Amino acid sequence: MEHASQTTILGKRKASGHGDALVLHLSPTTNSSTSLPEQESDQDTPQASSSKTQHIIVNGTLVPKTKKCYQCTFEGCDRSYSKPSRLEEHQRSHTGQRPFSCETCGKSYLRETHLTAHTRSHLPESARPFVCERDGCGKRFWTTQHLKVHSAWHDGAKLYKCNEADCQESFAKHHQLRAHICSEHSPPGTKPYICDHEGCTKSFDTNQHLRTHQKTHDDKRYACSHVNCLPSDSSSPKYFSTWSALQSHIRTDHPPVCTHPSCAGKKFASQANLRAHIKLHEEREADKAFVDDADSGNETDRPPKKKRRGGEHGRDWKCQYDGCEKDFKSKNALNTHTNVTHLGKRDFVCPHAACGSSFGYKHLLQRHLVRCHGVETSGPETSQDDLSEGEDEATFDIDAMTGNAYAKRADTRLKEAKALRCPFPQVQDLVDVDALLPPNATHASCDYVFNRAYDLRRHLNATHDLVCSKEVVDTWVRREKRKIHPTL
């Protein structure tokens, strides 16, 4: 009894990018006498049965025979192609390679055909081969398809139809259809490009702005890369739809921590604050090493070096003039030293006409006024060495410390109609007060003044723990400003 057998033909097709993929062809046949020695004879090779589907192995997977046997090997991609050149073009979308560059403007593309289409934009309109032959037109196009669409426009064809119920309008241009939808089927003020996400009513002037906005609806747009948030067998990665939400998560769950033993894990609001704090540790350690070295007695021949304000650590700005060994902790201090010491600038001039004295530092002018003209100045004098460090001396203002100075400036801005006052606790137009504040509680009015809706929204969140919608706050601020400035 004859049994059907299979002839296995093993071949190799080269697939660029991730190595060579083996393609195994399985061809069923009814000739059981077929063997390798017989194939070497003059007999014909058995042909595959047409009644059964042939299979091939593509990248290790048995699939029905198909012309698209070159499959992408990148994880999560199931695209396949009939030619290795097409597969190579597709894989550039994964690797980011753009080998075809425009010699005129430098733009690069994945395919040569894309570059060819782009280079046409640098050619004059007279180079376009297809011309509209209608009387008085003469427009030229690159492709026959574009010419057909243009000719249909001459014939009055209206290819863009409104899809709204009970609306039979149609238009020749797509932008005309968008304008119709905005004016007839959308709320007042709607812009041409409307977000189609469920529950979103925003619209935009350009398609680019719409695409940028649509990214905010992606709940997995940003992921936390902190080691505690990385995916594991028991947990999935944490995703956030906006950059601000990710930053808020990092500040709350992963705040910067000082690892110095004396700080015992002190936390900071930002990396900048942590770096400034660590710099203090470094300065203290450098000053301690400087003092220990001075006390060791190694420099008994020379007098002890004067300890400078701010310490010796971090003096990276050195004077470049020959013979000057001064160094400073900031570029501003170095510039002041250069202008006064090496360039001879004297910007502080005595106000007395009969005097005519000038000085390089403000404290020297103050000292001159006291000693020579009997003028009283407020605040202690500062030495030249201290001012050369570029550090302003702290002054104590009782109004600034008590907040009286801010209140005076706020009143001035309100009288000049340059700012608005925080409406708290009368915030019924901004949030649901009954859900956030006790109904019978009394709250003092807030003295905060602002000019931008953004500042008010941040102030309400940080000071009064009220989270308000951006659109609601913007509307309220515009309404209040119109009360002050009716022309806005």
Short description:
The chain contains 16 helices and 22 strands. The chain has 488 residues and is of the alpha+beta class. A hairpin with an 8-residue loop joins strand 17 and strand 18.
**Strand order of the biggest β-sheet:** 1-2-3-4
The largest sheet, given as strand count, sense and whether it forms a barrel, is: 4 strands, antiparallel
Described by its quaternary structure, the protein is single chain
What is the average per-residue confidence, as pLDDT, rounded to a whole number? 76
Alpha-beta classification = alpha+beta
Rg of Cα set: 39 Å
Binned strand content: 5-15%
Compute the separation of the termini in Å: 99 Å
Low-pLDDT residue intervals, each spanning 5 or more residues: 1-20, 27-51, 383-396
Shape: extended
Proportion of helical residues:
25-40%
Please report the number of helical segments. Answer: 16
Biased composition (Low complexity): 26-37
Organism: Agrocybe pediades
Subcellular location: Nucleus
Main location: nucleus
